[in-house]
Design goal:
heterodimer, A: 95 residues, alpha+beta, Ubiquitin-like (UB roll), four-stranded mixed beta sheet, 3 helices, 25% helix, disordered N terminus, B: 365 residues, Serum Albumin, Chain A, Domain 1, five-stranded mixed beta sheet, 24% helix, 16% strand, Atg12 (chain A), isopeptide bond (chain A), ubl conjugation pathway (chain A)
């Protein structure tokens, strides 16, 4: 994608990963990823870091976005204070 | 009067002719295709129990994981059936010929689906997301009783509009200026007076409408949609999840206004919305500005050469089609009406747009 005409497409989004319940806390909880990346990338990253297949991942402790959603859309709609807060749990937290 | 519109939407169906993929046929002759009427507001995996009986006798050994494909494109199961049809079948094909698979799930293209539970999870989370957009939080959905949540889901599964309205009205997810829904069904309308007013649950309405926009950009010209190129990869579709805020009084903000906000790069000074004839009208013929006031600036492959030509005849990008619930609404229709009547049960408005751009290569996301 063009990087000069539309800054939002190469923009990076700050993602803040927060553990919920008894989920392990990550040593490094803040990351930057490309806005055009899908939310699936965040989920996969968490799975690898925590060595768990089953994870429940939410935005703003509210809902689980579709993994196909782009991070930039999620940030634009639900981010605040310059970051997207992503909560993760080992069992369903907000059913 | 407007219950009629909602009923049309809920009763809307796509006739499907479902063929089993040849690689999964072990009997001779191959089974004939299954003819299924699929609800527009439903989801393809929910049809599994109706489809399987047609083909279970022919399947090779293994575990069944259903997935669908149209013209080689695996179909994203979380997109409502009607939206898939509107988007992928520019020239509506009835019956819609789909291929069903029970093996070889394309995990590199489709997110996993484990039957009804996955679809329900996706639906409820979309509903929460919509609620968050409308009210700033999704407490109302989270606080739903289990029986209510179950009834809401069942009503969508069974296409039961009355049952759905009974439960969904408790969520108070109507939009601002929402005078278009029959009051007898939604007497909680009283709390929706103006933007920013706090309702009885202490929630402040944001005035924002959840929208899922699917833009298909085509690089070549075509007269009929029959001749349009097929969509063979999801990369050819630009999916945008962006809420639209209804400005000013509900009835003045049109569908066209909403599209201008969502896709500012495709609307120029000589706007498509006017829908005048293509003859010179003596209007100003200034070159459209490359950046509009609207929210996000998207990739603009649509900027062509505009040399003192009316926008219809210029080589700029041209919106060929706007489709919602299978209809092409006039852009002058109040957006609040479109939202109230054409919205999906999870409270998202799905809009399919086809844009012709003056490029040779297809738009890539």
């Amino acid at each position: 994608m063009s990087s000069t005409e539309s800054p939002s497409s190469v923009r990076k989004v700050v993602v803040h990963l927060r553990a919920t319940g008894d989920a392990p806390i990550l040593k490094q909880a803040k990351f930057k990823i490309l806005g055009t990346d899908k939310f699936a990338k965040v989920i996969d990253f968490l799975r690898r870091q925590l060595h768990r297949e089953t994870l429940f991942v939410y935005v703003n402790s509210a809902f689980s976005p579709n993994p196909d959603e782009s991070v930039i859309d999620l940030y634009n709609n639900f981010g605040f204070d310059g970051k997207l807060v992503v909560n993760y749990a080992c069992s369903m937290a907000w059913g | 009067m407007n219950m009629e519109a909602l009923k049309y939407v809920w009763e809307g169906s796509i006739p499907l002719q479902i063929h089993i993929h040849e690689s999964e046929v072990t009997t001779v002759p191959a089974p004939p295709p299954a003819l299924i009427l699929a609800p527009r507001i439903g989801y393809l995996p929910l049809l599994a129990s109706r489809i399987k009986p047609y083909f279970s006798g022919t399947l090779p050994p293994g575990v069944d994981t259903i997935w669908f494909e149209y013209n080689g494109l695996p179909l994203k199961w979380y997109i409502p059936t009607g939206v898939l049809f509107d988007l992928l079948c520019a020239q509506p094909e009835r019956p819609w010929n789909l291929t069903v698979h029970f093996r070889g799930y394309p995990g590199n293209i489709l997110i996993p689906c484990e039957g009804e539970d996955s679809v329900k999870w996706s639906f409820i989370n979309s509903l929460k997301e919509a609620s968050y957009i409308i009210s700033g939080n999704c407490k109302n959905v989270m606080n739903m009783s289990q029986p209510d949540q179950e009834e809401l889901w069942r009503s969508v599964l069974n296409g039961n509009l009355d049952g759905y309205l009974r439960v969904s009205s408790k969520l108070k997810l109507g939009i601002i200026g929402d005078q278009h829904i029959a009051a007898s069904h939604l007497n909680s309308l009283k709390s929706w007076q103006s933007i920013g007013e706090t309702d009885t649950t202490g929630q402040v309405k944001t005035g924002r409408v959840p929208v899922r926009l699917y833009v298909w950009c085509v690089g070549e010209d075509f007269d009929d949609f029959e001749d349009a190129p097929h969509i063979d990869a999801w990369e050819k579709i630009s999916y945008i999840n962006q809420p639209v805020e209804i400005q000013g009084e509900g009835k003045c903000f049109t569908l066209g206004d909403a599209l201008k906000f969502l896709l500012p790069e495709y609307f120029r000074e000589n706007s498509l919305i006017d829908e005048e004839s293509s003859e010179a009208k003596g209007e100003n013929e200034q070159k459209g500005s490359s950046e509009d006031a609207g929210g996000n600036v998207r990739d603009k492959d649509g900027e062509g050469l505009c040399e003192n030509e009316n926008s219809f005849q210029s080589v700029e990008a041209e919106i060929k089609l706007v489709r919602i619930q299978g209809i092409e609404p006039k852009l002058e229709i109040p957006f609040s009406w479109v939202v109230s009547n054409l919205i999906n049960p999870e409270h998202f408005l799905h809009i399919c747009v086809c844009v012709k751009v003056p490029q040779l290569t297809p738009y890539a996301m």
